[in-house]
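Kindly inspect what follows.
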Amino acid sequence: MDLRKGISMRGLALNMTGALLVLAGVGLVAMTSRGLLNYRAAATRHGGEVMNLGIDAQPQAGQHGYMVRLVGTPTVVEAPHDPEFNLRVNTPVLVRHVEMFQWREVRIGDGVHYELDWVDRLLDASRFKEPAGHANPTSFPIGGKQFDAGLVQMGGFKLGPVLVQALPGSQRVTPDPKSLPENLVASFSRHQDYLVTSASPGDPRLGDVRVSWDEVPLQQVTVVGRLDGDQLVAATDAADGKGYDVQVGDVPVLDMFPDLPVPPESVMSERLLAVLLAVLGAFLLLSTQRNQRDVLLALGLGGLAVGIVASVLWIGGDTRTLCGWLAVALLSLLLTVWRLRRHR
């Protein structure tokens, strides 16, 4: 009786352990799949799951249409040019600022006073409380403007216009009066980082103009965008209405898009572990059935359990992954049927 009881308890323990291992395998693949699906669903808001290309990567076959993360320092191949001032700068974006020395109205409480200052827009003196004696010019002789580089690259990829304009940072450009066209040499002189029309730059007069330029510095940046051939562009179909991001330095994707959940790591390893747990559980369950220790049958049953659960979870998700799990389930089913027929 004690021997039979011991055998019965051993069988019960094996059955419970086997069942728990099968459930652990199914649960692990379900958790991994759900985590990956949640991550991809969130990533779709920004254009899709991001492929990490790393630093100064080169185009590879099969990357077209993917969202990618690229790190590097932009290279300006065709520099922007301000033709009116004959200024060319090795920068992705060059911005010209124009200011005029004008009267401006300053209100402090109920008091009003007027002072001359540099302003980057026309001030209509007719709207002043006391317009007499504070008349301003009626137009700017030249306007501000932005000039984008004709071609900017990172690694082996060209940056689209939207991404070029999104490159961060700004620093002042020191103009060279010697490069001025002949028609402007008599009008402008350099004062600090400006070109000014003032006869006495330290003592400007009403209507004097000063021009300055800012450039986007060449620095390491991280760019996320969609690959269109060898060009990196914005994903116009992204739900966030942007479809790209650019930040200074080597920035991880999760820092660029804080709303993304943390994706599961070592996905392939977890999938293999899930199958192995289910196979081991099935083997233990089979071993209590008349000592039927058939490894191939256990492999078929474990793979079938995990494959069916994973296939159901991936319905409506990634087609390639769904087909892969369906193949695992089908092969496991065929293996199970074959082994069961052999036993009969």
Notes: The chain has three domains: 2-42+264-343, 46-72+220-256, 75-215.
